[in-house]
Design brief:
Elements lengths: L4 E6 L6 E3 L6 H18 L5 E2 L10 E4 L22 E6 L2 E6 L2 H15 L3 E4 L2 E3 L5 E5 L4 E3 L5 E5 L1 H5 L1 H6 L29 H4 L2 H4 L9 E2 L2 E2 L10 H17 L4 E3 L12 H10 L3 H15 L7 E6 L16 E6 L29 H11 L3 E6 L16 H10 L2 E7 L10 H13 L5 H13 L3 H18 L15 H8 L2 H10 L14 H17 L3 H20 L8 H15 L10 H9 L6
Parallel strand pairs: 2-3, 2-4, 4-6, 11-18, 14-15, 15-16, 16-17, 17-18
Antiparallel strand pairs: 1-9, 5-6, 5-10, 7-8, 12-13
Length: 615
């Protein structure tokens, strides 16, 4: 039996109006305007937005905001049981009700209706798919209720940072590292924010080391000003507690950071070593310190969090302790493989064993932290930070990884990509797929990828899809583990290729031990045969490009192949320098400003011309 339909517009006219309560928030009013403008783009009819309705005028409405009181014999629309950003799409008679548990929930309810019911897609800030319909009909649907799996969702990529509306339309609730918390139209941002490396911001060595070297790590018998803090020192605790109390009085975010510096150097003094040995991990000292901070602030700031990292040497979870309820842990995947799902990858490559001899995998880390921490967040890495423009075939694991986080009690996810330059390797596609999965981990990311490729590349999308599969198969068949800093194999400088592919802490630790750093951080899946076939597919894509806009996108997507090609050539190869010039000229032409994290383009160009791998 054909389902009943509601005709929202036909022949350039409509009986419908958009209702938003007079007392609605700025975010809810913006949601109503977003609905109006998108409906007009679909069917050419601009529905009036009203805030009052008279007798007999309540039937043909698109209701945006707090749910209406039920009419006689009508099932009420209730918000009970929804998370703070939960949404409801419902039909009551001729009314379509778009509501949620908060203003942001209302906004997300509108976006869900536009996307899932009407077929709108926000692929990128410059590309929105709007289906055109002369007759805009909606089949009557059952109530749709949904609470997002993560209360913090940050697709930390250039498009999200520069265009927060794109992120909000894809239901992200954070738009940068510190969050765009001054956007009332978007319902502000999540009050959560990732931890930041803060040991030396709280206890600066330039202020304290000369007079109090005991505040800093003891390493090989000496206090070291470029290390971490001595977490067993009582004065360090008092200094940190005083500063964090002051931060909590003015902070607009839920948490304040007490997190290790971005290098090695855990304290080896007898007191810290004894704590770490008891807990089976250097994270023991960190969590014991954080728990004391949590206990000290809980009465004055009961709903606030002390945030710290499970990062590098502190990544394995401690034993014999539970994380305090006012402490949040941000588990970082910096040691993980990115070509296989986090939950099943067999890669074991951590540079530091725990005091009890463990070398756990990332999957074990997240499971262990989930058992002892109620405020677990994940900082995940989704691109190659040594080489933003090197092929990085990880699209196939994005959905699996985000589901894995959900299944391990993670409250929020920060998916870090390149934020400093547009058009890095598959940046727009990867960002879109991540956003889809963060809102709904059970979404079909392969379908999202297919829809994006078709919209972004038009007829050339088929060839680009084949290229993506080619790289994925090369990684799978070769058993390659991608790092967040995978390097091309430079035939003239293998040692520095390896050095650049590893985290600095890992490389330095292995060299200090007298061990040979492994070469599996090199992009050996990019062999001559794979590069040749990839080139053929891009030749095809360029021929199939529908117009100049698509051709430009295809050529931007081809930049990583050119980067890989000259990076793997010997210095004397006559083809090399012309390729270097062609690549960097096109980067300038297309607006790419970085090919390596924190290096301006001119520095990278000079290094490439001189065949310098480590710079």
């Amino acid at each position: 039996m054909k389902k009943q339909q509601l005709i929202l517009a036909e022949n350039g006219a409509s009986v419908y109006r958009i209702y938003v309560p007079a007392a609605a928030s700025e975010c809810e009013r913006f949601a109503a305007e977003e609905l109006r403008s998108h409906l007009e783009a679909i069917c050419g009819v601009s529905l009036p937005v009203v805030s009052s309705i008279g007798p007999g005028e309540s039937e043909y409405l698109l209701w945006v905001g707090a749910p209406p009181a039920p009419r006689e014999a009508e099932t009420p629309v209730v918000l009970d049981g929804l998370a703070p950003e939960g949404i409801v799409n419902a039909v009551r008679g001729g009314r379509i009700i778009l509501t949620g548990a908060s203003p942001r929930g209302v906004l997300y309810a509108v976006y869900r209706f536009l996307e899932e019911v009407l077929g709108v897609r926000w692929f990128a800030p410059e590309l929105t798919h709007i289906p055109k319909k002369a007759i805009l009909a909606v089949e009557v649907f059952d109530d749709y209720r949904y609470s997002p799996a993560f209360e913090y969702r940050n697709c930390f990529v250039y498009n999200s940072l520069k265009f927060p509306l794109w992120a909000a339309r894809n239901r992200m609730n954070a738009f940068g590292f510190g969050n765009a918390i001054d956007s009332p139209e978007l319902g502000y941002a999540s009050a959560h924010c990732p931890a930041g490396h803060s040991f030396y911001a709280l206890v600066p060595p330039e202020e304290y080391f000369e007079t109090h070297p005991e505040y800093f790590s003891l390493i090989d018998g000496k206090r070291n000003p470029h290390s971490q803090l001595c977490l067993s020192n009582p004065d360090v605790f008092e200094i940190v507690l005083k500063k964090l109390r002051e931060q909590l009085k003015t902070a607009k975010t839920v948490g304040v950071s007490f997190a290790q510096n971005d290098w090695l150097g855990a304290c080896q003094c007898p007191e810290c070593s004894a704590v770490d040995a008891y807990h089976g991990s250097p994270s023991g000292s960190i969590i014991r310190f954080c728990n004391r901070l949590g206990e000290a602030i809980e009465d004055e700031f009961p709903d606030r969090l002390i945030q710290t990292y499970a990062y590098q040497y502190g990544q394995p979870a401690p034993k014999n302790i539970r994380v305090h309820k006012n402490v949040a842990v941000w588990l970082c995947s910096i040691e993980a493989c990115f070509s296989h799902p986090h939950g099943s990858c067999d890669c074991v490559r951590r540079e530091l064993k725990t005091p009890d001899g463990r070398v756990p995998k990332f999957a074990q880390d997240i499971a262990d932290w989930g058992k002892i921490c109620d405020n677990l967040f994940v900082w995940d890495y989704c691109t190659n930070f040594r080489n933003f423009l090197l092929p990085h075939p990880n699209l196939q694991v994005l959905g699996d990884n985000i589901r894995f986080f959900r299944d391990n009690r993670v409250r929020g996810v920060f998916e870090q990509q390149c934020t400093t330059s547009p058009h890095t390797e598959m940046q727009e596609l990867r960002g879109y797929m991540i956003a889809k999965a963060l809102w709904n981990p059970d979404c079909d990311t392969e379908q999202a990828q297919s829809e994006f490729l078709s919209a972004w590349f038009g007829a050339a999308g088929t060839a680009i899809s084949q290229y993506i599969r080619l790289l994925q198969e090369a990684v799978r068949e070769g058993g390659h583990h991608l790092l967040m800093s995978t390097m091309p194999r430079n035939p003239a400088d293998i040692p520095n290729s390896v050095r650049s592919s590893l985290t600095s802490s890992w490389y330095e630790t292995l060299v200090a031990r007298g061990e040979q750093p492994p070469e599996f951080g090199l992009a050996d899946f990019l062999n001559a045969e794979t590069l040749a076939r990839a080139g053929e597919l891009f030749d095809l894509a360029e021929r199939l490009a529908d117009d100049e806009t698509v051709l430009r996108r295809v050529r931007i997507a081809r930049l990583p192949l050119k980067f890989a090609a000259f990076s793997m050539m010997a210095p004397g190869d006559p083809r090399r320098l012309p390729l270097v010039d062609e690549f960097y000229d096109e980067c300038v032409q297309y607006g790419v400003t970085e090919v390596k994290e924190a290096r301006i383009l001119s520095v990278s160009r000079a290094a490439s011309a001189e065949n310098r791998v480590f710079y």
